[in-house]
């Protein structure tokens, strides 16, 4: 407990860094996955190609991807950008399929109704397909958020600072307080992200909240 | 940098001895296979039983929430707790294997559970209707129908294990992760990058093998393509147990 009290400032700073490294890729990844997933949902060949390549990207182990990033995007080896881009790749790889499936999950009669009301492609996407796809997309985003928070801690091994530093420090000194703090911090952060996504999905889907329509 | 990595990957010294690529690759494959077999031996029967009987669904939820624990933290904590009680080689090996098994169980468990759970009740009823006993329903209907989800659970567990076994080099495990961890520690980028390329290729090959196995063991009656073919080519042959 005394260790915790003396290091609160440092812990919050690391947690803030961790939130950025895990959260920013979620937003950027979603922004990239939405158009890709939309394209995949309208074209079977694009679906197979995108989902297959996403699956291949997702197989690359995190430490290997972090290490190879400088080769691919020409950054310095210790640059935190490596971690952000790598996490964005994982997020996109996970979300492309989810977005495509979410957009395809819209019932055919709903789609016909939108067409009968004179909705064009873009208007149907924004006002019908996307809102109805929110629950599926949000569930994919929750998986991505939890796995991002866990994977980011590995970046301590390549010198990018976040809550993983506490894990490494605790392990190297065989000292429990920082190790436990790091694990609990990661869990709380994952819980926070999860809560924000669940809340966001609730706000975006008022028709799913109980009561009468 | 790419040239330096290529030089490392192709030099004879990288391919010989205990720290050579063949030995490290065998270690990585061996640990991963061991962990997967142990995790599957625990999680497949348990998941199938939960899906078959409907009891103990909360176990799946508990296992899934375990996934939020950072893998690095789990690895470090288990090593610190267990290592003082162990001697020699097992002091390095056992904590890693336990941590990896703990990570591999949730995806396999939820795959097996969801697979059996999602079997069409009509298929189950039909099996009972033709006089199958509960054990036969499980063996001949529920298990085959659960295979696609079960296999995808196994494959994602395999990827998870291969990735985490790489990180486990930090706590002393052998395998391809040694190149990454030792390379980072000695600022030897060609070695680090070469190790990363090998790990990525290994994961890729493992997943492709998993996909091929899945394509072989899953009944063609369960894949849309097979069903269509069966209807077109052999209209009179019953197409086995279908999920939908």
SSE map:
The complex is a heterodimer of chains A (213) and B (244).
Chain A: H1 2-6, H2 8-42, H3 44-59, H4 62-73, H5 81-104, H6 108-116, H7 121-152, H8 164-172, H9 176-204
Chain B: H1 2-10, H2 21-53, H3 57-65, H4 71-82, H5 90-117, H6 121-129, H7 134-167, H8 177-185, H9 189-217, H10 224-233
Helix pairs in contact in B: 1-9, 2-5, 2-7, 4-5, 5-7, 6-7, 7-9, 8-9
Summarize the structure in words.
The complex is a heterodimer of chains A (213) and B (244). Chain A is built from nine helices and no strands. With 213 residues, chain A is mainly alpha-helical. The mean pLDDT of chain A is 92. By secondary structure, chain B is mainly α. Chain B has a single domain (2-233), classed as MetI-like (MetI-like fold). Residues 229-244 of chain B have low confidence and may be disordered. The A-B interface holds A 55-56, 58-65, 67-68, 70-71, 77, 146-147, 149-151, 153-154, 156-158, 163-164, 167-168, 170-171, 174, 176, 179-180, 182-183, 186-187, 190-191 and B 1-2, 5, 67-74, 76-77, 79-80, 159, 162-163, 166-167, 170-171, 177, 180-181, 184, 189, 192-193, 195-197, 199-200, 203-204, 206-207.
